[in-house]
């Protein structure tokens, strides 16, 4: 069976459908980073990807559908967690990964554009939530391992600890304009690790 024998819309490594998806999603990411969601145009994406317009319209339908697939692909391609043997080390590795991504000119602009679109596009918001769920779920076992080692209390919400690491970095990206460097990443990791050890992320905990 040839490469075109795959089911329509399927993604088979090395198949034409997979190559088309890769080219179109790369073009969509470039366009988002350059011009933002409001100027995302499927005909322009097709031209950039050197793919027929009909193919792009048939497969993705709308700019929102294309961005949703881009986020799904980013979740699929994202790097696995790092395990260093300590909570602080693991959270620092996580924070530096987030920092490198957001500080990258293309990736940082892309995330800004997608986050902006998610405020008014339900499908984009759903896709963005799924992307972060995948990333948080990938890293949450690092916190469970810290619980098992006795570094943080039983009952700690593992997902909330991981979210707490990224939150200051996204704040810098979107609002403060502060430097988004390794020092910022390390500070975010240290703050989350210290708070977790103090019991700040216990499930159901009422903070006085």
From TrEMBL:
InterPro entries, sorted: Homeodomain-like_sf, HTH-type_TetR-like_transc_reg, HTH_TetR, Tet_transcr_reg_TetR-rel_C_sf, TetR_C
The HTH tetR-type domain, residue ranges: 18-78
Entry keyword set: DNA-binding, Transcription, Transcription regulation
DNA-binding region residue numbers: 41-60
Gene3D superfamilies for this protein: Homeodomain-like, Tetracycline Repressor, domain 2
Entry-linked Pfam families: TetR_C_11, TetR_N
Keyword check for DNA-binding: yes
One Gene Ontology MF term: transcription cis-regulatory region binding
Protein name per UniProt: Transcriptional regulator
UniProt lineage: Bacteria, Bacillati, Actinomycetota, Actinomycetes, Kitasatosporales
